[in-house]
Amino acid sequence: MASSSLPSTAPAPSAPPPGGATAFDTLSSLLHSRYSCRAYQPEPLQRATIEQILATAQRTASWCNAQPWQVHVASGATLARLREAFTQALPAAPPTPDLPWPREYRGVYQERRRECGWGLYEALGIAKGDREASARQAAQNFTMFGAPHVAIVTSDEALGTYGAVDCGAYVAHFMLAAHSLGVGSIAQAALASYPAVLREVLGIGEDRTIVCGISFGMADLAHPANHFRTTRADVADSVVWRD
After folding, report:
1. Which of 3.90.1150.10, 1.10.10.60, 3.40.109.10, 2.30.180.10 is the CATH number of 36-101+143-225?
2. What does the pLDDT look like over 101-153, one tens digit per residue?
3. What pTM does this model have?
4. CA 161 to CA 148: how far, in whole Å?
5. Do strands 149-156 and 70-75 pair parallel, antiparallel, or not at all (unpaired)?
6. What whole-number distance in Å separates Cα of residue 72 and Cα of residue 79?
7. CA nearest 87: which of 139, 136, 128, 41?
């Protein structure tokens, strides 16, 4: 068979990680150890570190290689303005996300959601039924949990569900890249609940669908919120074999 006249663009295989670990071992370790960080040290990251995370996440696969994500990274004075804008907007405006919220959580999905919430509240010493304390914790979403940076992820409005799916993959890879560098992060649908605030402060156009935010920075490891871990279902609960 004649060889193709097109040049190969595939990268050369990389050398295995030191210590005998394979690429699979590294990926598995990152996936098993990553968690949603809900308390941060206030010091900002070096710009070079953020650029490393962004460059790695940019390798995310997407439908037809559209790469629809556009990311607004807010830090410093801009992040302070964003926090203040949320403080002003939340009491007066109902949430109006660009993407509709789930119609309902039912069955096992509701069970997992409750387990996650109760586990977090237990770590924070919030008793079941204490609505005032749970509301205060929920409001921490809009302070970005004290993170020094937030990335607001948007998609092209015309791409609809497909663009949102691509952005979901981007978010996952962003957080894995951050974790690989020792940086904590959390994906936040809550921030996308108030798109008007984000558009006003960050200059995001109406042609962009706001998908979610990712707060990130160095974790405050002493904070009890960062001692909580979620569980995962068995593979058998998620896979149907049809041999």
Report:
1. 3.40.109.10
2. 999 999 999 999 999 999 999 999 999 899 999 999 999 999 999 999 999 99
3. 0.90
4. 30
5. antiparallel
6. 11
7. 139
